Amino acid sequence: MSITNISLIKLTRVCFIVGLLLLPSTAFSQQSTSAKVTIFGQEIGAPLSLAACPKVTKKIDGKKREVVAAEYEISEVCYVGNVGPTTSLAILIPDAKRPGYVSKGFSSEPVPVRAYIIDGVVQGIDFKTVYSDNKSKDELYSDLQVKFGDHTQAHPREWQNDNGAKFTRYEYDWNSKTYLVSLREKRVYGSFVNGEVKIYTPKAASFLADVELEIKKKADEERRKKNGGL
Question: Taking the alpha carbons of 70, 9, 30, 143 in that order, is the dihedral positive or negative?
Fold first, then answer.
């Protein structure tokens, strides 16, 4: 199997790889790990149920063009991309429904929320996080705890920025036979902490790891060709 739009997945994680932005009311409905897990209205382990994002007509470079509506122009969570048996899709969340800890993306990583379809079933969702206060961080952790219970592992990681300031980043895992869930704080920018949440079935975790390995092998091969086969 292969993901049909690997080029869209800048896997550094797999660029890897979630309700995504978990508002208890609309993103993470309160469920235990033994129940069906629904994130941003999409059930993990079920066929895609979200609607395609609507398109709007805009004037670009003096010409009218039909483009996908932006987050401030939509009212419901929707997807962007070509649906296939095995693929990945960008997920757009309306601004009005976006939890405060979910990133809107940056120019270097413009897709903060993504769903992964494998053999016609959504097997995973992940999203980028950003927060600048303990309230947003506590809300994120609480939403994950409500859905998956107490974390099974927690690791504080010391990190130092270019100015020499030291911070503690946290990594949490919720692992079971049904879901592999992780919260990773990755970088600190001033008062902002950027990270990522992944919610995968074991099938998604294994598949995406294979994809990452394949991408790494291809990158290594390209480097060898540029270096004259070395």
Answer: negative
Helix (H, G, I), strand (E, B) or coil at 163: coil
Phi, psi (degrees; rounded to nearest 5) at 203: -65, -45
Length of the chain: 230
What tens digit of pLDDT does each residue of 95-116 get? 888 888 888 865 455 678 999 9
**Which residue stretches of the chain have pLDDT < 50?**
1-26, 29-33, 107
Say which residues have a Cβ less than 8 Å from residue 206's Cβ, sequence separation at least 6: none
| C-alpha–C-alpha distance, residues 23 and 187, integer Å | 23
- Residue whose C-alpha is closest to residue 129's, from 79, 41, 37, 193: 193
Strands (E), the chain: 38-39, 42-43, 51-52, 55-60, 63-68, 78-80, 87-92, 113-118, 121-131, 153-160, 166-175, 180-189, 192-200
At 126-170, the pLDDT tens digits run: 999 887 777 788 888 889 998 898 888 888 888 777 777 777 888
Going by C-alpha positions, the residue among 97, 123, 121, 125 that lies closest to residue 112 is 125
HSE, CB side, 13 Å, CA atoms: give it for residue 58: 10
Rounded Cα–Cα distance for residues 71 and 96 (Å): 9
The first and second tokens of residue 209, run together, are 């790891």
What integer pLDDT is reported at residue 69 of this predicted model?
87
Cite the DSSP H helix spans in 118-197. Answer: 134-148
